[in-house]
Amino acid sequence: MDAIECLRSRRSVRKFLDFPLEWDKIATILDCGRLAPCAGNLQNWKFIVVTEKDLKDAVAHSCVQQLWVASAAAIIVIVAEPEKAKRFYGMRGERLYTVQSCAAAAENMLIAAHSLGVGGCWVGAFDEELLKTALGLPVEIRPQVVLAFGYADEKPEKPKKFPLEVVTYRKHWRGRAYDTEKVLGWYSPKVERALKKTVDIVKTGPEKLREHATRLSARIKEKLQHKKNKDNS
Description:
Elements: H1 3-9, H2 23-34, E1 45-50, H3 53-62, E2 74-80, H4 82-115, E3 119-123, H5 128-135, E4 142-150, H6 164-167, H7 180-183, H8 189-202, H9 206-232
Antiparallel strand pairs: 1-2, 2-4, 3-4
Helix pairs in contact: 2-4, 3-5
């Protein structure tokens, strides 16, 4: 499975088979987390692996009663050492860079797990103090992410996502990306609607089709001129 396909096909799995996860796969997942980008290459993270039933139960309890977490074959808790980032980058390092770095490690682990045929889920809802107590964390260490891994006992459907043209701007806030259709391989909801409208017009006869083509040509010229003016401004 290549990287793009892995990203597109990964799903959040919350139901796992009652089957242990091989340690070589756990090690590979951890290693991929270790390779994630991080601010200043500080690597101010630690990965805590939990496979014992009583400890998994305690972690699940701290995750605001998301008891399904305990059914995972292995739980990896990513914890941060924010003081290290604060030393170099001040408050921004402590409160932002540290979180970003741990998030990058978490995503690496999820993608790595999927490539190995292992299901996983990112859990961000947890009682920090309960989790720290369960894992025996010192006061200066802060848990960032709980990751549940195991062999999937479900096939989650593809979640609905906004189309690229909705979440993408060009050059500035609200700057429309005029070439979105090209990025999408000449597909977008707007293009689909336009094609359907054209088919409906074709059915009405050649005269209507000529009128529609004339109007469409004028609109395209207008949009291209508008784009040219914006690019030159």
